Amino acid sequence: MSFEVFEKLEAKVQQAIDTITLLQMEIEELKEQNNSLSQEVQNATANHESLVRENQQLKEEQHVWQERLRALLGKMEEV
């Protein structure tokens, strides 16, 4: 009878080892996925910052053109 108990215990230990191994593999996959997503976030952040700078530059250019146009319209009205 104690042999049967030992076999059951051994099966449970093996099952626990298998479960731990699978969980470790899953952890590694999740770590890789996390690293990949972190890189994507960094890329998106850099892209966002670049777009914000470009947007600000375009707004400044638009403002300059508007001022030049107003100046030209003012000169036309004087004539």
From TrEMBL:
| Pfam families referenced in this protein's UniProt entry, alphabetically | ZapB (PF06005)
Q: Which organism is it from?
A: Serratia aquatilis
Q: Which gene encodes it?
A: zapB
Provide the primary localization.
Answer: cytoplasm
What is the protein name for this chain?
Answer: Cell division protein ZapB
Q: Which family does it belong to?
A: Belongs to the ZapB family.
According to its UniProt entry, the function of this protein is described as: Non-essential, abundant cell division factor that is required for proper Z-ring formation. It is recruited early to the divisome by direct interaction with FtsZ, stimulating Z-ring assembly and thereby promoting cell division earlier in the cell cycle. Its recruitment to the Z-ring requires functional FtsA or ZipA.
Q: Which UniProt keywords apply?
A: Cell cycle, Cell division, Coiled coil, Cytoplasm, Septation
Q: Which residues form a coiled coil?
A: 6-68
Answer yes or no on keyword Transport.
Answer: no
Localization of this protein? Cytoplasm
